[in-house]
Amino acid sequence: MVNDPQGLVVTDALHSLGYPEVLGTRVGKYIRLELAADLESTAAKRVDEMCRRLLCNGVIEDYSFEIAAGMS
Amino acid sequence: MVNDPQGLVVTDALHSLGYPEVLGTRVGKYIRLELAADLESTAAKRVDEMCRRLLCNGVIEDYSFEIAAGMS
User: Fold this and answer.
1) Complex ipTM
2) Do both A19 and A35 map to the same domain?
3) Are residue B37 and residue B20 in the same domain, yes or no?
4) How far is CA B29 from CA A36, A71, B21, B51, in A?
5) Measured between alpha carbons, how far is B53 from A69 in angstroms, rounded to an integer?
6) In angstroms, what separates the C-alpha of A60 from chain B's closest C-alpha?
7) Is the pLDDT score of A29 beyond 60?
8) Phi and psi at residue A10, in whole multiples of 5°?
9) Same domain, B25 and B36
10) Which pLDDT value is given to residue A71?
11) pLDDT digit string (tens) for B25-43?
12) For B36, nearest residue in chain A (alpha carbons)
């Protein structure tokens, strides 16, 4: 698991605001891509590549993704 | 829908890297809270409050959340 100082700060802030029930916080990025693709398997392969090449900084971040079928 | 300049930049960058199938990108924050709560309804009410008071900047961000039951 990657170190998350921002998560610790948010947990402290929530405690200060009166939310002692917060046991932990993880802060990350959420990226939603709209893709033109015929096959889910192709889309998954391409998105994994995009994550490794551009979207995710592997030194300080983990990543995961889901493919959802859309219209067309 | 909130304006998302960072999403436009990521779309352009992905096109430059050879991913023309990317039609659009939205970039946001993902926050995972671990909570101690007896009732899902209570947890949802409290989390909504946390979003409005601290986690979400209503001027430039929308938010949504899901409650998932965990261990205890």
Assistant:
1) 0.83
2) no
3) no
4) 24, 25, 24, 12
5) 34
6) 15
7) yes
8) -65, -40
9) no
10) 63
11) 999 999 999 999 999 999 9
12) A21
The verdict on a CB contact (< 8 Å) between A28 and B33 is no
Do residues B37 and B71 both lie within one domain? Answer: yes
B35, B1: one domain:
no
Cβ contact B32–A25 (<8 Å): yes
Q: Name residues 13-32 of chain B within 8 A of A (Cβ).
A: 13-14, 17, 19, 21-32
Of B23, B25, B36, the CB nearest to A36: B23
Q: Can you tell me the distance from the alpha carbon of B27 to that of B24, in angstroms, rounded to the nearest whole number?
A: 10
- Amino acid occupying residue A8: L
Residue range(s) defining the domain that contains residue A21? 1-29
Confidence label for A3 from pLDDT (cuts 50, 70 and 90): confident
Where do runs of H (alpha helix) occur along chain B? 5-16, 40-50
A36 and A22 share one domain? no
Domain co-membership, B65 together with B40: yes
Clarify whether residues B39 and B49 are in a common domain.
Answer: yes
Tell me whether B8 touches chain A (CB under 8 Å): no
User: CB distance from A36 to chain B under 8 Å?
Assistant: yes
Domain count within chain B = 2
pLDDT over 70 at B70, yes or no = yes
The nearest CA of chain A is from the CA of B19 a distance in Å of 8
